[in-house]
């Protein structure tokens, strides 16, 4: 066990963990932030996407020992009351079915729009093709991203 | 409209200590053909608080199909509640709720009259109470947005002020349903329950549960189906920091491979318990198990399919109309083709998991299950518990698709919790989830048609051979169970029709899947109809309409018949919406298929483009659906889009293969799922009518694969008779 300090959702969190523990399980089992989901454990489905130092990462495939003092943003840190423009767009488009993969899609979208406020369809495809939605909400995800782009412009 | 459930006293009104109006539902006594009503208690359904907030219990498991929103919408509509002041709470499992499961597109079908009747009766009580207070006849009162309204004098009383007096009202035998044209909730876009929580990561799925003193667990199951543990070395496992226990799971100690017909028991293996999920996963990786595979047939996919092909010649007749042999003799031409579909996994995004707290007096379970009754029955069988010692909570579920009809993972967790004497949260890795699924059965089908001089089908013989779900799930031995159903299309449309079934035994675990049977039979039937259209040099939709014949009631089985006018109408509409009769560019093609299931009618047109290097792209999908009245329009459209994408995705990539008795695939890298860049334009339209609402989760799925295969044929001239499309055409 080793001691780590991370800034998660703007709060300093100090905890003990095995150094090889993926960030996903630190968030879920140690810090109680269960909005970030386990689905493949190999970084191939995107359900565990969080933002580390401004970039989206697959938290299931990133050991805590390599993160150090970085800043982590999870779905819980996006807003207080589901009112981040991306979340509002997701609500307006009524995106989720089972909902399990949606935090990952929202965090991938957050990364995309933070770096590229007006992405083309091709850029949206590129940024989101690491995420899987098993229920097939993709059409509405695309619609929600368009709403978020328009809302952010205004 | 009058309510159609004439039985008395299935709703009970009481005032709670806080003054709220609590409505209990006696479900049994309002179900047709149920006699043992006295054994069942009242279960909560509606609560109206003095502040006017209405709490509705969602009784069925929510797997993403929207039932947690849709059933309460029906209740709220008849009640006249304000959807903005409705709180929906998931009900725990209770036998008294009846039909508390998710599957087969039946939730709305089975609950439509019940929810309306319950809502209407409570509305009546509120109106009766208001009638006394306002001193006006009840007939002049109605309810709207949480108030009882007297339109003549423009007076209103909020529900909250009526709850105490309403609880003393004697409910009438019969109440009127609200007229459809006055609906303010049903048929409207209502924000779905849990929406804000789902986009905030705060909705608790089962996998998110945390209990004090909880132990984390995972499992390593026998890779070879029907294998068991011979011995294991856990030295390395126990050296992983955090690992506390290693426990063998042997189903022979608990009744063997099956709990009951249709209820598979847990699969043999070894469980690793730890103080964190990660420690359990790491410990499991380091486990060294020697497996005993003496019970295995050591199957491989090629051998399984060879058996299926061979079995086409040795069958039982499942349906026989007219005389197929005589029709073949009379035929001017004869067409015959063979189709294959593979095993498919479910890969729900939330992997199998379950939390159990097995105490001395009660076994408390939090389970992502579509089938809590099977879970309860399993616990009764494994541990000799009485139903009253079992409490099952039903958190929101990260996908079902039929996988969670089986409760094997919950049995794992219960055994571990009992042995540990502590709450246990069990999480299967994705790899275990893919390797130990209850797969959609693979099958081989041969269809033969006898045609007259005009190309009309006078004889249809369809033979399906496979290892069946039913055998896999409960009846080892003889040719029990069948994967071709006497209701399957085109039963009722051809004078000489024969369905046959060839039964093969296999170790591969098989089970339900979204629209399971028709995913195979409709793929073959609608691909074959396209081949017949091509053979006759006719437009596919023209040929299909001729095949259906004029609008009429077509008898299918016994008393069951349906209106082909509704099927024709969705086909006409999809022809128009998809631009079926307009030319396409070089390399593009359109394919068509239609389907009837769970009382709903669906027609689909898939448009594809096959470019250079044989690169396949699905450009567009048009679907037209007649499911009767659409209760929840946003949810309904989502179900149609989701089912179609699932059908397309499975057709493109879905394939579980078997080698040396074990499943080859293990995760999303080798069991591929569609991603955003592959999604076609989707155009979904619903036929507007006031007919009783029918099922929607499954019916749009089966036509997707044949429509895709027919589109590929139209674009390239290449016929896909074997799924997945995979390497036959370059995909993705």
Automatic annotation (TrEMBL), chain A:
Keyword Iron-sulfur included in the entry's annotation: yes
Ranges where the 2Fe-2S ferredoxin-type domain occurs: 2-78
Alphabetized CDD domains for the sequence: fer2
Entry coiled-coil feature ranges: none
Entry GO MF terms: 2 iron, 2 sulfur cluster binding; metal ion binding; oxidoreductase activity
InterPro entries noted in UniProt: 2Fe-2S-bd, 2Fe-2S-bd_dom_sf, 2Fe-2S_ferredoxin-like_sf, 2Fe-2S_ferredoxin-type, 2Fe2S_fd_BS, Beta-grasp_dom_sf, Diverse_Oxidoreductases
Keywords: 2Fe-2S, Iron, Iron-sulfur, Metal-binding, Oxidoreductase
PANTHER family: BLR6218 PROTEIN, OXIDOREDUCTASE WITH IRON-SULFUR SUBUNIT
The protein's name in its UniProt record: 2Fe-2S iron-sulfur cluster binding domain-containing protein
Protein species of origin: Flagellimonas ochracea
TrEMBL record, chain B:
Pfam families cross-referenced by the UniProt entry: MoCoBD_1, MoCoBD_2
Xref: SUPFAM superfamilies: Molybdenum cofactor-binding domain (SSF56003)
Gene Ontology molecular-function annotations: oxidoreductase activity
Domain of life, per lineage: Bacteria
The Aldehyde oxidase/xanthine dehydrogenase a/b hammerhead domain, residue ranges: 200-295
PROSITE patterns: TAT (PS51318)
SMART domains noted in UniProt: Ald_Xan_dh_C
UniProt-listed NCBIfam families: TAT_signal_seq (TIGR01409)
PANTHER family xrefs: ALDEHYDE DEHYDROGENASE
Protein name: Molybdopterin-dependent oxidoreductase
